[in-house]
Write a structure and sequence with these properties.
The complex is a heterodimer of chains A (411) and B (320). By secondary structure, chain A is α+β, with helices and mostly antiparallel strands. In chain A, a hairpin with a 5-residue loop joins strand 13 and strand 14. In chain A, helix 3 packs across helix 4 and helix 5 packs parallel to helix 6. The C terminus of chain A is likely disordered. Chain B starts with a helix and ends with a helix. In chain B, strand 2 and strand 3 form a beta hairpin. The relative contact order of chain B is 0.12. In chain B, helix 5 packs antiparallel against helix 11, helix 8 packs antiparallel against helix 11 and helix 8 packs parallel to helix 12. Chain B is mostly helical and 320 residues long. Classes of the chains: A alpha+beta (411), B mainly alpha (320). Chains A and B meet through strand 1, strand 2, strand 4, helix 3 and strand 9 of A and helix 1, strand 1, helix 3, helix 6 and helix 13 of B. Strand 4 of chain A pairs antiparallel with strand 1 of chain B.
């Protein structure tokens, strides 16, 4: 058997909104139009849309490709095209070798059958022979930790037990290519850990792997490459860190907040160093911006660090409370040094603007993303900041400034 | 704004590891329906799907059998009870016919009904389960890849298992009744195989049609309910006269049923013609051409069923 390979060559996939014709009565006119009006299959008819547009990639042994994107970006459609559940409208795609899919790992279970009977059934659905399943039966049962319930019908299982059994079967498939879709959310925390390690093991074995997930830190730690999708198109391909940063900073911007005039205009957020950090490393955040007019005491500009894993805020600093204060019109440069004594994961550095009297946030502001790779904790205060604010006030009398410029222009 | 959008254009486009492969035409690549040849489809069906996934068909058959008899008090006895009801119905009808005709009902008549009730209940059961085999397992069809042919085929195979239980019961009953089949009974296995192929082919067609149009299951239900009046289970085609017998034999199931009766019960070599004299003339009760016709029909149904099913298969996940 040739070694595994995943191919996706200029693939387009068309879908249709709304009801498809479902009874003979609706079919007759549809058939008639199909017979007499020889339509171009590449043209979009009414209510049709492209779910995947001109997507190309390939994954070779030793590579792990992560696919990220908002809901409806086409991630699951791509996996269905790859695993031959759907056929492309245009282009070619496929997987060479035996495919291990960690998608819907318990879809083949029959509720009336026992766990043991379902191992054989689901194993066969996933492409294992009876002999292979028999040989790995003990391992599967042990991995699932369901030895006491293996002769109980699956309908009496909890959803966690269901998922554990499903994952255990899939994990013993011994595939040439691995396709993973959001299954890491199975079972309790400990089993998730175990499942994750098992996937990591398969990745390290050098199989071509493709992973779709919303758990960005999982993508970052497993993948060598990444694709960012938006409405069926590839927006960005590159290293996982790069794609995740782009996805998070563009994708998490709240909409429709631009309507309100903001008291602070943050023009940029830069972080140093750019790559992954270790726990306890110092991160320098540079913020540039402008105060258009005196904001008043109720408006605040801050720096906030948010974990992307659970959206929890791990650090907040009010920049308007620092010296010199940002209460006067002009431009400013703020440098904040943070010691990232956090756990592993991705962190988004936000520059929120809020109104303390009305207790409401006006903007989350421009953002930057950093990641912490190793989780060994160092001494020191958690996220202890060193702040330096530099302001360059606008001239006290703007009229004078504009007058002088006018004069300068005339001469 | 300092979003990374400026840097995007630099990385978009095929990178070294993401470039296209030269072996584009390889068979493992999925291509649009329009670009597939019949040759490719036949290889897909017989090599990549049926042969490679024979183990899955077997597991699904086991599942269907197990599930059917789980939590039932009578268990496998149902496999015998179902055809027994058909036989009892047949005996009732034949008794009335014999009474009106002033004849008596012999053991051979009973045995003839019994041996024809088996393929009929196999056919009815298979079609019933196969019709909903795809729609009823939509979660599998939309989520995991495997050749979908195995679903209606497994439903048919599970019914074949029931039929084999029925055959065993029939052999016991025949022994008790003192019916000893002769050498002509060797015709039974090829007839059984052709009955399986015919049923499997129709099961494939019907299951896939029902996925697109739910009307199909109502049509099938009606046909199965009244089909017994158009199939010689309770009666024999020669009862319909010179022309009627031939018309009745157009039903591809009819020669199979009559063939079983002639060969097993009457120990008649099926290569020889049987002509029965009636008030209206000589009726062709049996001809080897009847059997040839039904064999060809069975094979055609199977191949056409597979091809149509395979053609439609790529749309299943979108339409189910």
């Amino acid at each position: 058997m040739a070694e595994g390979l995943i191919e996706f060559q200029h693939v387009w996939k068309k879908f249709r909104r709304g009801e498809l014709h479902d009874s003979l009565r609706d079919m007759v006119p549809a058939l008639a139009s199909k017979l007499f009006g020889r339509k171009d299959r590449e043209a979009l008819e009414q209510r049709e849309f492209w779910a995947v547009q001109d997507v190309s990639f390939s994954v070779r042994p030793g590579e792990a490709l992560g696919i990220i994107g908002a809901n409806g970006a086409g991630k699951s459609t791509i996996l269905k095209l790859l695993t031959r559940i759907l056929r492309p409208t245009r282009g070619r795609c496929g997987i060479r070798g035996r495919v291990g899919t960690l998608i819907e790992i318990s879809a083949g279970f029959h509720q009336d059958l026992t766990g043991a009977e379902n191992i054989f059934l689901q194993g066969a659905i996933m492409g294992m022979t009876r002999r292979e399943i028999t040989a790995r039966f003990e391992d599967i049962v042990e991995f699932s930790e369901l030895a006491d319930f293996i002769d109980t019908p699956v309908k009496r299982y909890s959803s966690g037990m269901n998922a554990r059994l499903g994952f255990a079967i899939a994990a013993h498939l011994n595939p040439d290519v691995l396709v993973v879709d959001e299954v890491l959310a199975v079972g309790d925390w400990r089993f998730q850990r175990k499942a994750f390690d098992r996937i990591g093991e398969m990745v390290n074995r050098g199989l071509p792997v493709i992973i779709v997930s919303h758990q960005l830190d999982r993508i970052a730690s497993l993948c060598t490459h990444c694709l960012l999708l938006d409405r069926g198109r590839i927006v960005l391909r590159g290293a996982p860190d790069e794609c995740i940063a782009h996805y998070v900073t563009t994708g998490m911007q709240p909409q429709s907040q631009q309507a309100e005039a903001l008291p602070f205009l943050v023009s940029g957020v830069e972080i140093e160093p750019k790559g992954a950090l270790h726990s306890g490393d110092w991160l320098t955040v540079k913020i540039h911006g402008e105060v258009p007019s005196s904001p008043g005491p109720d408006y605040h500009l801050g720096v906030r660090v948010r974990s992307l894993q659970n959206a929890q805020v791990v650090f907040t600093l009010d920049l308007t409370a620092q010296e010199p204060s940002l209460s006067e019109p002009g431009t400013f440069d703020v440098t904040v040094d943070l010691q990232l004594n956090t756990g592993k994961g991705y962190f988004c550095i936000e520059t929120p603007i809020w109104n303390s009297r009305e207790r409401r946030e006006l903007s989350r502001g421009p953002q930057a993303v950093t990641s912490v790779a190793a989780a060994a904790f160092h001494g020191g205060t958690n996220l202890h900041p060193r702040v330096k604010v530099v302001t360059r006030p606008a001239l006290a009398t703007p009229e004078l400034w504009s007058d002088s410029r006018r004069v300068g222009g005339a001469s | 704004m300092d979003t990374p959008s400026d840097s995007v254009s630099a990385v978009v486009g095929p990178s070294e590891t993401l470039r296209q492969d030269a072996e584009a035409a390889d068979a493992w690549l999925s291509v649009p329906d329009e670009e597939r040849s019949i040759r490719r489809e036949l290889r897909e069906i017989f090599h990549d799907e049926l042969w490679r996934y024979r183990g899955l068909a077997y597991e699904l058959m086991r599942r269907d059998i197990r599930v059917r008899y789980k939590q039932t008090a009578l268990g496998f006895a149902w496999a015998v009870l179902m055809p027994t009801f058909v036989v009892l119905a047949g005996v009732t009808v034949r008794y009335a016919m014999a009474y009106v005709g002033g004849r008596s009902l012999g053991i051979a008549d009973l045995a003839g009904i019994a041996i024809k009730a088996l393929p009929w209940s196999f056919f009815v059961g298979s079609m019933g389960f196969a019709t909903t085999s795809l729609v009823g397992q939509a979660n599998l069809v939309t989520k995991i890849y495997f050749p979908r042919e195995v679903l209606p085929l497994a439903a048919t195979m599970a019914q074949a298992f029931d039929a084999s239980v029925g055959i065993t019961a029939l052999i016991i009953a025949f022994t008790l009744l003192g019916i000893r089949p002769g050498a002509a009974a060797l015709w039974a296995p090829p007839i059984a195989i052709s009955a399986f192929l015919l049923t499997a082919g129709l099961a494939l067609l019907v299951s896939c049609a029902n996925l697109f149009f739910r009307d199909v299951k109502y049509i099938v239900h009606v046909l199965l309910t009244f089909g017994i009046f158009f199939t010689p289970v309770f009666f024999e085609p020669q009862m319909f006269g010179v022309l009627g017998a031939r018309v009745m034999m157009l039903n591809p199931l009819a020669p199979m049923m009559e063939g079983l009766r002639f060969s097993v019960v009457l120990d008649h070599n099926l290569l020889e013609t049987v002509v029965v004299q009636s008030r209206h003339g000589a009726v062709l009760a049996w001809s080897p051409w009847y059997l040839a016709y039904s064999f060809v029909a069975a094979l055609a149904a199977f191949v056409v069923g597979l091809l149509v099913f395979h053609r439609a298969e790529s749309k299943f996940a979108e339409y189910v």
